[in-house]
Specification:
By secondary structure, the protein is an alpha+beta fold. The protein folds into two domains: 104 residues, N-terminal domain of MutM-like DNA repair proteins (Alpha-Beta Barrel), CATH 3.20.190.10; 124 residues, Helicase, Ruva Protein, domain 3 (Orthogonal Bundle), CATH 1.10.8. The chain is 27% helix and 21% strand. The protein contains seven helices and ten strands. The chain has a four-stranded antiparallel sheet. A four-stranded antiparallel sheet has the order 2-3-4-8, covered by helices on one side. A two-stranded antiparallel sheet has the order 9-10. A hairpin with a 2-residue loop joins strand 6 and strand 7. The protein starts with a helix and ends in a 9-residue tail after the last strand. This is Endonuclease. It catalyses: Hydrolysis of DNA containing ring-opened 7-methylguanine residues, releasing 2,6-diamino-4-hydroxy-5-(N-methyl)formamidopyrimidine. InterPro entries: FPG_cat, FPG_N, H2TH_FPG, Ribosomal_uS13-like_H2TH, Znf_DNA_glyclase/AP_lyase.
């Protein structure tokens, strides 16, 4: 599943179509395809793992789920979920969830929860964490209402950077350390974006999918943690467990 930085890259690729009219729409998405034709794309936004194609009175929300993808000015043999043709090019979406949201996107999204948005509010994230003191840190980092855009890679790398065991209880983690986790969730997301654009992302991973700790050399633990049962890679020596 693409994480927030990958959706930002998709958004940036599609900005060339802002202000352009859709001359043809196609695909097997269960939406009113005819409604889209002849409409002008007014903006392209992202919120966490959602790509948002904005029009005057509605927004098309694209969620790539586990296997979704897109191509700009290219095609592949897979069935098109949604295809949009403009005079200056086209976009094809595959195996994604497509939904129409009525009205302005601002009515549907809390931009302050998106770690990559200019409106990101770290104080609001800290307040939400204080309301979830009994949860595991590995779960709350993946909670899109708190850290929109953070996925499993970012979760693992942030917890390694901040030296926190993923099965730590939020309320047991010192406030200074919690603030560090919140801060790094945003910082690492922008590092992710930079490395992804440079095709260096996997080379920069310190713990995700790795076998040995780069700091102490001991074997890392791979475990499916939390309510979400997502893969966590961590060092029991370097990452402290707060319980």
């Amino acid at each position: 599943m693409p994480e927030g930085p990958s959706i930002v890259i998709a958004k940036e690729e599609m900005t060339v179509f802002i202000g352009k009219k859709i001359i043809e729409a196609n695909g097997n998405a269960k939406i009113d395809i005819d409604r889209i034709e002849d409409k002008v794309l007014t903006d392209v936004k992202s919120w966490g793992k959602h790509l948002l194609l904005c029009f005057d009175d509605f927004t098309i929300r694209i969620h790539f789920l586990l296997f979704g993808s897109y191509l700009v000015n290219e095609s592949k043999s897979t069935a098109i979920r949604l295809g949009l043709v403009f005079k200056n090019g086209y976009i094809n979406f595959y195996a994604a969830s497509v939904k129409i949201l009525e009205g302005n996107a601002d009515a549907h999204y809390d931009w302050s929860a998106d770690v990559m948005n200019d409106g990101w509010n770290s104080a609001a994230a800290l307040k939400k964490l204080s309301d979830n003191k009994q949860e595991l840190i590995c779960d709350v980092l993946l909670d899109q209402d708190i850290f929109s855009g953070v996925g499993n890679i970012i979760k693992n790398e942030v917890l390694f950077r901040t030296k926190v065991n993923p099965t730590s209880i939020v309320g047991k983690i010192p406030s200074k350390k919690i603030k560090e986790v919140v801060e790094q969730a945003r910082i690492y997301s922008f590092d992710f974006l930079k490395w992804k654009k440079e095709y260096q992302l996997k080379k920069q991973w310190l713990v995700h999918t790795k076998k040995d700790c780069v700091q102490c050399g001991k074997a890392l633990v791979k475990e499916y943690t939390g309510k979400k049962k997502r893969r966590s890679f961590f060092c029991t020596t370097c990452q402290k467990l707060y319980v």
